[in-house]
Design brief:
2 copies of one chain form a homodimer. Chain A is of the alpha/beta class. Chain A folds into 3 domains: 3-173, Molybdenum Cofactor Biosythetic Enzyme, Chain A; 180-255, Alpha-Beta Plaits, CATH 3.30.70.2860; 261-414, CinA-like (Maf protein). Chain A is built from 16 helices and 17 strands. Chain A has helices at 11-14, 22-32, 47-60, 78-85, 94-108, 114-117, 155-173, 191-197, 199-203, 231-248, 261-272, 286-292, 310-315, 321-326, 332-346, 393-414, and strands spanning 3-9, 36-43, 63-67, 90-92, 121-123, 127-129, 138-143, 146-151, 178-187, 209-216, 219-228, 253-255, 276-280, 303-306, 350-356, 371-377, 382-388. In chain A, the strands form 4 sheets. In chain A, strands 2-1-3-8-7-6 form a 6-stranded mixed β-sheet, sandwiched between helices. In chain A, strands 14-13-15-16-17 form a 5-stranded mixed β-sheet, sandwiched between helices. The longest helix of chain A is centred in the last third of the chain and has 22 residues, at 393-414. Chain A is globular and about 75 Å long. The two termini of chain A are 49 Å apart. Strand 2 (36-43) of chain A pairs antiparallel with strand 2 (36-43) of chain B.
Chain lengths: 416, 416
């Protein structure tokens, strides 16, 4: 199988001021195309570090994809470096120049400065990949059968180039094997327990099919990957094993597609033609954000309320003042009343409600930081759970949201 | 300056099923401690790839930090590999064993299986770093003056170990220089334009102080980094340059601290003892999520509404049916009425409102995908803007949210 290396360039990655989401996306797309990413390296804007990374990557892989360091500012040195690395010199590329002018005049409608024109310079030996979304052109080099592609670090510019130019080119250039992924998502079971439970299944897998455990947000995704040259055979074999795997973990399955919990929930609601509303205090809109991150969610999500202060719980959701005073805002009674309030306010079939203490402050002895009450329900019945997370604010919010969505999913499926 | 390498291990990183947020956090913490991360490499669960990464990292850096591959499942091979790499053998560590038992009996309250006990095995030559948050112990090795530390990939376990054990140890072991960072955030100006505007400032910087441009979410962060052994001198020099820089970019400054836009906004609201409510249609709760990601935001954020369907805009926010029918949901008139509705519903000093088409579907010729109307206002006046983004759904949501928060920030500062 042809291996690919990813090199990302920029001090901001090493110092951690920017999280590298590009590499993850590139890994997914390359893998789908039948390429295995065998290393991914990030280096700073230093000549010798980038040079060394290029040497190492080309020793390890047949394809070297580079992102970043193509900006117009002085700290960006990728272009002159690549020019030297391939014993070339910088020349103005007419197509790139037209593109820079077009971007400034038509898209940005901002005056262009001298510095921007430098963006149209490329090493003479490269094949230019025009950037339809920005000013920095992509550059492709070949040496001893290996392909090097340099792309901007701006995510949507890189993604456009990869999808429209780079992946199609690599598919033509290399004879890529067929890769079949089958993924399912489980919730409510630990990685170790799962591994023990399917130990025999795993050890009986043929060499062409691999199993991976991908824990995330308190859930575990299981992925089978089949690889080979016979498209039909690999698909069939992977499907057969996947059926077997699903049977073995069926009590914990959220979905047998490679989709998120919120997408799985959306599919259920759509197929039942039912709607959902949210009333979230401590998660502050994150549950609604997850739901509405799915295109088409307006079909089943009329809306949500974030009653962050108690006055809003009282005035908009009709939670009783008495309840807030006696049981408190973080209580089973309150989230139950929030469900009723949300069903009424949004006229929805289902509602979810959360109230808790996400930290780092605000805890008491009786209700320490991380205490959350969650509820899901409809007009007839409501289910509640008390949760306790001991992580940081962001992770507490994420785990609470996941628990709410999964509890609702099970609740809906239990309804006639 | 002592260099550090970060090695992250796991197929899930290369295939992109997990985004590597650990490395960014580690880079930040190491940098604060006076260590420069000069490379960061991700490799899969393959013996020879991990081995090679260890060889390369120890050639490049004095400190090698490793995360991942310590789980209890068969695909995790980091521990036996490290044992071989340091010519050792696996033995049970009594402290780690007690910890595994404690975690299962007291924290998880789940039955422990044989596989979990394997977690207590470590290479005989290592110094064990006990893991207070999980079952996989950390391991520290030294060879020829270089330090190797292996930690679990689970973020909060790794973070705990780094903060409590690894960073304090490295500070003692190495003589670390002093690093001073000064960061400011700008909005409404492009990277190229900024670079031209402060070109003279940048070229006049001494060798001990570096300037970095960090564009993100349509804003540009500028960071000055001073480095040296004289704490007081470096602080003073960096402060002086920072004052100069602030003066030069003052018309675009959002904040001169290393904080987010939402945190800067929160500080303004807190100092004015005023409150903010949100009414967000197309951003689906993301603006409220940003606001409530800041601890203590309940002081100035009574709550928000997500009127995702028009019926909620009408029934809860009192947007006129006539407005929705004639101007449409995505219009200046609608977001203006949403502001009034939100101010009334939440009894707040300010409100923000958004309505738009985030894609990938739902656009028309008059209102293509990416069209968004935003509004900010108080009881007396409202400001509106029409935006048009041409990115993917997630990025459209993020950029809209940033624009709303910055427009509100400027609006508040313009009020008496």
């Amino acid at each position: 199988m042809t291996n690919a290396s990813i090199i990302t360039i920029g001090d901001e990655l090493l110092i951690g001021q920017v999280i590298d989401t590009n590499s993850a996306w590139m890994g997914q797309e390359l893998n789908k195309a039948g390429l295995w990413v065998n290393r991914r390296i990030a280096v700073g804007d230093r000549w010798e570090d980038i040079w060394k990374a290029l040497d190492e990557a080309s020793a390890a892989s047949g394809i070297i994809l580079i992102t970043g360091g193509l900006g117009p500012t002085a700290d960006d040195i990728t272009k002159p470096l690549l020019s030297d690395y391939f014993h070339s010199r910088l020349v103005v590329n007419e197509g790139a120049l037209q593109n820079v002018k077009y971007i400034f005049e038509t898209v940005l409608q901002r005056p262009m400065i001298e510095r921007n024109l430098k963006q149209a310079e490329v090493p003479e030996v490269c094949t230019v990949i025009q950037n339809k979304r920005g000013t920095a052109p992509g550059m492709q080099f070949e040496r001893e059968g290996k392909v090097f592609v340099s792309m901007p670090g701006v995510p949507h510019e890189m993604k456009g180039m990869m999808t429209e130019e780079v992946i199609p080119f690599l598919k033509k250039k290399f004879e890529l094997p067929f890769i079949a992924h089958r993924t399912l998502l489980t919730a409510g079971v630990g990685e170790s327990f799962l591994a023990d439970h399917i130990q025999e299944f795993e050890s009986a897998l043929p060499a062409t099919i691999k199993l991976a455990y991908l824990p995330n947000y308190g859930m575990v995704r299981l992925r089978l990957t089949g690889m080979g040259n016979d498209h039909a055979q690999i698909s069939e074999e992977t499907d057969a094993r996947f059926t077997e795997l699903k049977a073995q973990v069926k009590e914990w399955i959220v979905t047998d597609e490679d989709i998120s919990l919120q997408e799985a929930l959306g599919k259920i609601l759509k197929s039942r033609r039912q709607t959902l509303a949210t009333a979230e205090s401590c998660t502050g809109g994150y549950i609604a954000h997850l739901i509405t991150s799915i295109p088409g969610s307006s079909k089943y999500f009329p809306g949500g309320l974030i009653p962050y202060q108690n006055s809003v719980k009282e005035n908009v959701l009709n939670v009783q003042q008495h309840t807030l005073e006696t049981a408190g805002a973080v209580s089973e009674e309150t989230v139950k009343e929030m469900i009723t309030g949300a069903l009424n306010l949004f006229d929805s079939d289902y509602a979810v409600a959360v109230s808790g203490i996400m930290g780092p402050d605000g805890g008491t002895e009786a209700k320490p930081v991380g205490t959350v009450w969650i509820a899901v329900g409809n007009r007839h019945t409501t289910e509640t759970r008390k949760l306790w997370f001991r992580f940081d604010r962001q992770r507490n919010i994420e785990l609470t949201s996941t628990n709410v969505l999964n509890l609702l999913r099970k609740f809906i499926l239990s309804q006639p």
